[in-house]
Amino acid sequence: MGGVMRLITSCLLWLGLMWAAPVWATVPRVVALDWACAETAQALGVTPVGMSQLADYRIWSGEMPMPDSVVDVGLRMESNLELIRALRPDFILISPMQQGAEPLLRRIAPVHVVAFNSELQPDSYLQARQATRELARLLGREAQGESLLRETEQELQQLRQALVGDSRTMRPLYLLRFADRRHGWMLGANSLFGGGLAAAGIPLAWQQSTNLWGFTTAPLTALMAEPEAMIIYIAPLPFPDMDALVDNQLWQHLPAVREGRVVGLPPVWLGNGLPSLRYFSRLLVAHWPQPGPLAAVASGADRRIAGETH
Amino acid sequence: MSHHLDVLTEQRRPSTATQSSAGLSFSVEQKNSSAAGDTRALVLAVLALLLLLALALGRLTNEVPFAQWLETLSSSSQQLGLEALLWRFTLLPQLTIAVLVGAALGAAGALLQQGLRNPLAAPETLGIQGGGLLALALVVLYQPLWLTHGAEWVAFAGGLLAAGLVLALAARRQNSPLALLLAGMLVSLLSGSLLTILLLNHDLALVSLLAMNAGSLTQDGWQPVQYLWPRLLIVGVLMVLIARPLRLLEVGDQAVRSFGVSPAFLRLLTMLLAIYLSATVVSQVGVISFVALAAPLLARMTGAQRLLPRLICAALLGSALLLVTDLLVAWLPGGGEWATGSLVALLGAPLLFWLVLRVRLPEAPATAVSLGIRHQHPHRLLWGIGVLCLCGLGVGLGLARDAEGWSWFARGDWSLIAQWRLPRVLAALAAGGMLALAGVLIQRLTGNPLASPEVLGISSSCGLGLILLGLFYPQASRPLQLLVASLSALALLALLLVWSRRAQFAPLRLLLCGMTVTALFAASQSLVLGSGDPRGLQLLSWMSGSTYYVTAELGWSLLVVMTLLLALSWPLTRWLELFPLGPVAASSFGVDPARSRLVILLLAAVLSAASTLLVGPISFIGLLAPHLARRLGFCRAREQLLGAVGCGMLVMLLADWAGRQWLFPDQIPAGLMASLLGGGYFMLSLWRRG
Question: Using a CB cutoff of 8 Å and minimum separation of 24, what contacts does B682-685 make?
Answer without folding.
Answer: B682/B182, B682/B186, B682/B620, B682/B623, B682/B624, B682/B627, B683/B165, B683/B169, B683/B183, B683/B186, B683/B187, B683/B190, B685/B1, B685/B4, B685/B5, B685/B627
